[in-house]
User: What shape does this take?
Amino acid sequence: MECIMERLQVMDCHKYSERNILLKVFDLIDFYMRTVGDDRQISVCNDGTHELEVNGETFAIPFHLGCDIDGIPVFHLTNSFALYEERRQLIPDLVHEPQDEISTDAFDVAALIAQAASQKESSAVHDGIYETHVMYSTSTYKKLVALTGWVPSTTITALKEGYETIEPIILSREVIDVPSETRCDWKEIDLYQIIAGFIDAGARALALKPREL
Assistant: This one.
């Protein structure tokens, strides 16, 4: 882990490939994700592939990493390059634009809804509001945005059935520094604690999953 943080400390987006910097950030998140799982004695995996069903059609959500606990999605890690490649299939001359701290990408909202739909399908409780999470890096690669969505079950049904109106989704965001200091208690770092909170929420959702007989 220290090796990853040391590399982030010296990397400069003027000298290094943006993709290389992004991969190092994602390596750090993956390390934190697995470390929290070990601390909680929870099997956490990089899976969580989810699709969104809208009016009878199914759409895949592009993302880099999907944190998953026994089929329950914890969070998605998206990146502007994956979203760009997805959109370029429809708009070949599209120019890549990095994500920022203010605007919300439609794919990120779709990822939140897809996670909620997966939670609803896996849970014994099919009504209510589902808490879901997406993270992405900003254009400087020095900060991450943690986007949380509270998705009503009625919204999932409305999208699936093609209703004209849906119940609103509540969003909140938190901007986090990408850590690069190696001489610190990394379990006290904001990013680690936020990922731990996401995984704890996933464990609570897992507790509602019906047990197989």
Observations:
- The two ends are 40 Å apart (CA to CA).
- The longest strand covers residues 143-152.
- Strands lie at 45-46, 51-54, 57-60, 65-69, 72-78, 129-137, 143-152, 170-177.
- The CA atoms of residues 43 and 70 lie 7 Å apart.
